[in-house]
Structures are given as structure tokens and as C-alpha cells.
Amino acid sequence: MAAKVEFVRTEIWAGELTDEEVERAARGMSERAYAKGSYICHRGDRLDSWTGVATGLVKMSAVARTGKAITFAGIGAGGWFGEGSMLKNEERKYDLVALRDTRINLMTRATFVWLCENSVGFNRFLVRQLNERLGQFIAITEHDRSFDAKARVARNLSWICNPVLSPRVGDIIEITQEEVGLLASVSRQVANRCLAELADEGLIAIGPGTIRPLDIAALGDYGA
Question: I need a labelling partner for 165 at 20 to 30 A (CA). Which of 4, 59, 76, 105 fits?
């Protein structure tokens, strides 16, 4: 139990929790591993836990009725998601896929609801999280209709670096060019070309299995 308590204290949402709230959260935590390409859940499933990425990379996506695939977000280490489904007690409206070998943390719905009802600090975090996610989804809707492939690649890189939504990603993103393509809904070849052009423009530096954003603000506004 002590190890779980220490783990909870490191999470971004626990920064304003009391000792009692941290201990209550720790009792409701578990961990699960998924291999690359595995579905964590399908659209319409009930994943009755608030979910965080311990290590790895998760794609949140759906297929529209027209058959078009839509990627909502890439969630990196430290990111938590699914609070909307928890608050509304409903099935997931999207697919969750592990883009690489991934470990996720799970908080039971009962624990999540208790924190919502008893913790001011937890609710403050949720407001910040929901605000960040809303801004991201508004931007996704805009760029999906208006922006070219390079702008989609640039903006997805900036979103992965969001300090609220993926707080443990840091200054260097551990991501392959194939994974970038999956997040931006472009082929690997197109992703490679777009990344090379962004590097030539001085916005990123590309390493073996890594990308270092050099100007996150410019990436986030790319194509505007």
C-alpha cells in the first residue's frame, strides 16, 4: 500500500490532494499492460475506470458513419483520460489503441466518484483537464477540415507536449515516424516527409525514435 501511496503522490492530479484523499485514491488503483497494437477498449465498451498512461503511447480515435477514421488525441506518459465517461457513467465514445507496448493505470469509478464528491483539489484539476481537452478538440475539428498533412503533424506533436494532458513527456518525445503518421492520420511516407520539412524549418530535431520540438508554440499554430 505504501508504494501505491507514493505513486499517487507523483501524479499530476494529486498535487492538491490531502493525505486522506491520497490514501483513498491509492486503494482504488491498479495497473495493466497492453502490447503494441492492442485495443484497450472499443467504442461502445464500458471501461469502468479512469485511465492514465504510465508508459507508452495511446491513440484515442473513432470511425465516423461515413467510414472516415478520426484521431482525437495521442496520450503520452502521465496523461489521464476518460473523465467525461466517468462523470456521465456511460460507454466510451472512442477506440483506445496502444501504439507501442504500454502500461496503463486504472482508478475504479467508485474512487473517482468519491474524489469528485469530496476533494476540492481533485475538482480543480478536472476543470483544468477538461478545459485543455476542450481546446484541443476544438483545434482538431478546425485542422481536420482546413489544414494539410504537415500542419496536422505539427499540431499533433505540440499536443503531445501539453503539460496538463501528457505531463511526463518532457522536452523529447519518444515516438517513431510511423506513430506520428498514425496520430496525424497520414501514411508513414507522408509523415516522414512532413517531419523532414519541419526539421528544415527549425521547428523540430529528429533523432532515432525521438523528436525534440524546438518551438512548441509555432508547432501548435502551424498552418493558421
Answer: 4
